[in-house]
UniProtKB/TrEMBL annotation:
It comes from the Bacteria. Gene3D superfamilies: Aldolase class I. Belongs to the OMP decarboxylase family. Type 2 subfamily. It is an enzyme of class 4 (lyase). The active site is at 95 (proton donor). Transmembrane segments: none annotated. Residues 17-260 form the Orotidine 5'-phosphate decarboxylase domain. NCBIfam families: pyrF_sub2 (TIGR02127). The gene is pyrF. It catalyses: orotidine 5'-phosphate + H(+) = UMP + CO2. The keyword Lyase applies. This is Orotidine 5'-phosphate decarboxylase. Its EC number is 4.1.1.23.
């Protein structure tokens, strides 16, 4: 089964649209990890095991591992998810994008080296730059559309006319381009931030039931109820609502794993109340 099938099955079986983001910051780890040379792996593994029952996905963010020289921990962590929690897909948040000859290596990095089920990608270089990802039909390609950060509007809201079309913001043009032209293998999803509920509603209207990865609840303050109300698909799914810091660092004490489990489950319940 490919990423999309696994994701849809997990939405149903776990009754969950929650994604836990894995963004290790050793300075925020509980004291018991202080002298552990493999702290990044051990901390993240405990988070994964504690929250697995509440999630539809895990989303490790590659810079948090690479900056620490912990790429090996990332590879072992993804292998652990596959081995211990089969049926929960892993989205590698790497936001890759480059000319085709280099993008091929980024695709191999995400899917073959790290064994991710999906990867986030930056569409700025155009269709050919995403081809090495899109042609991996069993893998998900999660394309930045309207990001959660305050500066998202700087470029993503610029008015464009497309191919003779009337003017509209770039992120809407991108959403339509992905839905109509790039999703031939049915393996595309879009990133739209929880901090922009109105834009979520507009993107959903353009892309039908295409999955949306929605970061920005929790630490960034996005409104869960507005996200679900505006962006769920016709069958009440369609969303991968991602929270990292609010789950990972729910407690800095010895109860960190139990606190993370409660935070993930609380998010699952809040989403389900709204759909
Ligand atoms: O538009 C985007 C795209 C990606 N992210 C990533 O998601 C998490 C958010 O972390 P929180 O702690 O839940 O705020 C982080 O890895 C970002 O790189 C995003 O926030 N917005």
């Amino acid at each position: 089964m490919g990423f999309m099938q696994v994701l849809r099955r997990r939405w149903k079986d776990a009754a969950s649209l929650v994604c836990v983001g894995l963004d290790p910051e050793p300075a925020r780890f509980p004291a018991k990890f202080r002298d552990d040379p493999d702290a990044v792996f051990h901390f993240c593994r405990e988070i994964v095991d504690a929250t697995a029952q509440s999630v539809c996905c895990f989303k490790p963010q590659i810079a948090h591992f690479a900056a620490l020289g912990a790429e090996d921990a990332l590879a072992r962590l993804i292998a652990h998810v596959h081995d211990a929690h089969p049926g929960i897909p892993v989205i590698l948040d790497a936001k890759r994008g480059d000319i085709g000859s280099t993008a091929r290596h980024y695709a191999a990095e995400a899917f073959d080296r790290y064994r991710a089920d999906a990867v986030t990608a930056n569409p700025y270089l155009g269709a050919d730059s995403l081809q090495p990802f899109l042609e991996r039909a069993d893998k998900g390609v999660v394309i930045l559309c309207r990001t959660s950060n305050p500066g998202a509007a700087d470029l993503q809201d610029l008015m464009v006319s497309g191919n003779g079309g009337s003017g509209r913001p770039l992120y809407q043009h991108l959403a339509e381009t992905v839905a109509r032209e790039w999703n031939g293998n049915g393996n595309c999803a879009l990133v739209v931030g929880a901090t922009w509920p109105e834009q979520l509603r507009e993107v959903r209207a353009i892309v039908g039931d295409m999955p949306l990865l929605v970061p920005g609840v929790g630490a960034q303050g996005g409104d869960v109820e507005a996200v679900v109300r505006n962006a769920k698909s016709a069958d009440g799914t369609g969303l991968v609502v991602s929270s990292s810091r609010a789950v990972l660092y729910a407690s800095g004490g010895d109860d960190f794993a139990a606190a993370a489990a409660a935070a993930a489950e609380g998010l699952r319940e809040a989403i389900n109340r709204a759909r």
